[in-house]
Amino acid sequence: MKDRKPPKSNPIRDSKNRIKLGVFATNGNGAAFTFHPDRFHCTWDANVRLAQKAEALGLEGFVSAAHWKSFGGDDHYSGDLMETFTWAGAVAAVTERIGIISTVHVTLNHPVFVAKAEATVDLISNGRAGMNLVLGWYPPDMQLFGYEVKEHSDRFELADEWMYIFDRLWSGRKSFDYNGTNYTLKDAFSQPHGVQARPVLLNAGRSPRGREFAAKHCDIAFLSAHNPEPQALKKQVEEYRHEARTKFGREIQIWMSAYVVLKDTVKEAQDYAYDYIVTQGDDAPVQNIIRNNAIDTKSMPPEAAAKLAYALKAGFAGYPLVGDADHIAGLFASLSDAGVDGFLLTWLDYEGGLDRFGREVLPRLEKAGLRSTAEKSLTGLQS
Fold first, then answer.
1. Residue 156's CB: how many other CB atoms inside 10 A?
2. Which residue among 169, 172, 287, 364 sits deepest, i.e. has the most Cβ atoms within 10 Å of its Cβ?
3. pLDDT at 382 over 90
4. Residue 95 and residue 55: Cα distance in Å, rounded?
């Protein structure tokens, strides 16, 4: 087979679309907590179909989720996640243009291992690899490996060391020693080397220290919609960009996660969402997430606690894109005007949902000037 030239850039970061789009969490059973029969059931064949469909539609990213223990006890569907580097390498082999992102716990995965694993995905994908860096907040994940969740500041101290080591391993051509608080390395070196000068890095840190970490190290930061109104979001976006520029002299993109419920009418979409989230929602794992995330719902007004549980069941607290095609396209436009650069999308039924999204929403985004056609969205980035 003829060797491929490396792409000019990684589309999840470098696409010129005003709104960039990715698909999230197909390496497991989706992002919703529900007993609804439409809930996605992860298979490798389904992942191949979805990755290739997303690429054909011109979407920029295919992004895995990661945790090691389920949120609902042994054999609960939330524990069925494919390991993310293995998954990414396999996705890379069946696609040609879309960015492929492995979610990685920096607190559990040693940077020496990750440098080699990510370089492997980068070579298979010909320069389309990236990582979504998470620090680890779920105690059962940590305890499975014999650790306890570190204090908040200690997690970020470790993450800063991890990034320093990873960057040297990725770009360095000479071995080095390292003696730090969390790592001690002798003659550290990594081969083979990846295609990209540096893989695309994502992070969803929400605390002040988390935002600082993303601003310092990452290309894409994720925003939580504390207030879903566009003007409030615009202020959050501007503050995030300002921190990256003033503290670190860097430009970063601001993305959001979102769940899509697309129906013929807004009411039909709202009714469907209520059915899978409330009527058939899976409450036990959501309460376990809240409890283990040290969220004090007892101090919340009852309506706030209920709203949090609803958002988690709907799509792991993503932004609600619920309505008909015109309404959802209008939400994208408003969020773009607020400064949001991209969205990781989930559906209850990924295959049917992505198909319909491609037929009904993408043409509206193209007409509004928010995206180019599928051919231009990804092809223009290739050499």
1. 20
2. 169
3. no
4. 7
